[in-house]
Amino acid sequence: MQSLVWISRQLTRLTAWVIILAALVAMAEPATFAWVKGDTQVAVLGVIMLGMGMTLGKEDYRILVQRPLDILIGAVAQYTIMPLLAIAVAKILGLSPGLTLGLVLVGTCPGGVSSNIMSFLAKGDVAFSVGMTTVSTILAPVMTPLWMTVLVGQTVDMDGWGMFRFMLLVTLLPVVLGSVANILLQRKHWFEDVRNIMPGVAVLAFACIVGGVAAVHGHHFRNSVAVMLVAIAIHNIGGYVLGYYSGALMGMSTAKKRTLAIEVGVQNAGLATGLSAKFFPGNAESAVAAAVACVWHSVSGTVLGNLFAFWDKRRSR
Fold first, then answer.
1. Does Cytoplasm show up as a keyword for this record (predicted)?
2. Quick one: average pLDDT of 28-34?
3. Burial class (CB in 10 A: 0-12, 13-18, 19+), 282
4. Other C-beta atoms within 10 Å of 214: how many?
5. Is 295 helix (H, G, I), strand (E, B) or coil?
6. Of 130, 149, 122, residue with least CA distance to 53
7. pTM value?
8. pLDDT 10s digits, 155-175
């Protein structure tokens, strides 16, 4: 079991490379990941969210009660900056309807499940990070369909109610089940081992989702890769900057500002990829944009966390 825990830690540390490798393998040999579609893809998404739920215990919910103002500021920043920035970037760059749909979908999803690790690397406020991720995920079944309907509902066939029901099933229910299991079984040694393995399982699950998209739509990566990367980068980096200065505007400490930057900028693009495949199956560009964002956010968030830590080391000399 300890070897599996070690493997899980290495997979978590190398998240971006694992996802990139999966995408490359899928494009070279599509049959490798062609099975990740339909109900299988839904199940894989559920596993990711279950793993997140298994990290939430009584102390995490206590944080929500003890720090309501911080969490409120974070939630407002999360669900205003990224959706509005996504549609603004799409309009400024004149993105195609498909790329616009993918970027807005990424922007309206909750914070990324790896953002807590990135906040730790950045010497941020990890408790604040966990609280923000928890609340943004709980709000996602309402906020994601709502923003999608408002921002792109006039230009695409949008089933907001269907997305709401789907997200309750695939995001909120697994998180609740995982969290309840953690609260009831956290003192069991075997459960602690399972919980320690789940981050690695989540990384592999993310890789499978991205691989599934690349297997089906891999040829679309080459068609608009340059403008896609520019749009994703501007959206992501803009989220970091606006998140950080939102914290500064509210008089937050350096640790909280760093956490807010990461929580706002890093989105659950794996969820966006799954939602795109489920609700917009005929729109290849949307799924590809979300899959590329999944890789980009994993890399940039880790780099930003390490840059913050490096800055602290230089200042302490």
1. no
2. 83
3. exposed
4. 28
5. helix
6. 130
7. 0.81
8. 777 777 888 888 788 777 888
CATH number among 1.10.1270.20, 3.40.50.300, 1.20.1530.20, 1.10.600.10, domain 33-308:
1.20.1530.20
- For 95, other C-beta atoms within 10 Å of its C-beta total 24
As a residue count, the chain comes to 317
Listed residue (127, 65, 69) closest to 250, CA to CA: 69
Q: What is the largest CA-CA distance in the chain?
A: 57
Q: What are phi and psi of 75, to 5 degrees?
A: -65, -40
* 282 three-state secondary structure: coil
Percent of the chain topping pLDDT 90: 24
C-alpha closest to that of 260 among 76, 137, 57, 14: 76
209 contact partners, CB below 8 Å, separation of at least 6: 36, 41, 44, 45, 270, 273, 274, 291, 294
- Token pair listed for 179: 């969290």
Question: Beta partners for 111?
Answer: 267
